[in-house]
């Protein structure tokens, strides 16, 4: 009987711990320099980002979502970002690194359009 009670208590605690961890992660938001013209989904960093207007939001981020590589993947899909993060934002130098390829890509497309 004591073993069953102990097992039930452990199960309840582990469920509570898992639930708390799932709710502890804040959404990761990528603010866009230029709004998207239509709703877009981007998979990056193990998360699904839903993009609309001037933001892409990962409501259920993973441990891989908050890094420069994920930021780069989003910027390459939807264009340069003005900010990236949750409670803590990427520092300016890391955001510049994130945007480097997207900015070059946008400039290249602008040059092609002028020709």
Note down, in words, how this protein is organized.
The chain is of the alpha+beta class. α2 runs parallel beside α3. The longest helix has 23 residues, at about 1-25. A hairpin with a 2-residue loop joins β2 (about 40-45) and β3 (about 45-50). Helices cover about 50% and strands about 20% of the residues. The protein has one domain (about 25-110). It has helices at about 1-25, 70-80, 90-115, and strands at about 30, 40-45, 45-50, 55-60, 80-85.
* Main β-sheet, spatial strand arrangement: 2-3-4-1-5
Low-confidence stretches: 5-10, 12-23
State the distance separating the first and last CA atoms.
81 Å
Per DSSP, the total helix count is 3
From the alpha-carbon coordinates, what is the Rg to the nearest angstrom? 20 Å
- Strand percentage, roughly? 15-25%
Helical proportion, percent range: 40-55%
Q: Could you give a short account of the major beta sheet? A: 5 strands, antiparallel
Mean pLDDT equals: 83
Kindly list the characteristics that best describe this protein:
115 residues, alpha+beta, 5-stranded antiparallel beta sheet, 3 helices, globular
Topology:
Blueprint: H1 2-24, E1 28-32, E2 40-44, E3 47-52, E4 55-58, H2 68-78, E5 81-85, H3 92-114
Antiparallel strand pairs: 1-4, 1-5, 2-3, 3-4
Helix pairs in contact: 2-3
């Amino acid at each position: 009987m004591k073993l069953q009670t102990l097992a039930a208590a452990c199960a309840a605690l582990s469920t509570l711990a898992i639930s708390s961890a799932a709710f502890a992660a804040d959404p990761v938001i990528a603010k866009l320099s230029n709004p998207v013209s239509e709703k877009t989904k981007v998979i990056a960093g193990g998360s699904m980002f839903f993009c609309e207007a001037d933001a892409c939001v990962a409501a259920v981020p993973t441990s891989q979502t908050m890094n420069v590589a994920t930021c780069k993947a989003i910027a390459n899909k939807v264009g340069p970002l003005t900010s990236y993060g949750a409670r803590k934002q990427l520092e300016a130098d890391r955001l510049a690194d994130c945007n480097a390829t997207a900015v070059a890509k946008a400039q290249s497309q602008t040059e092609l359009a002028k020709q």
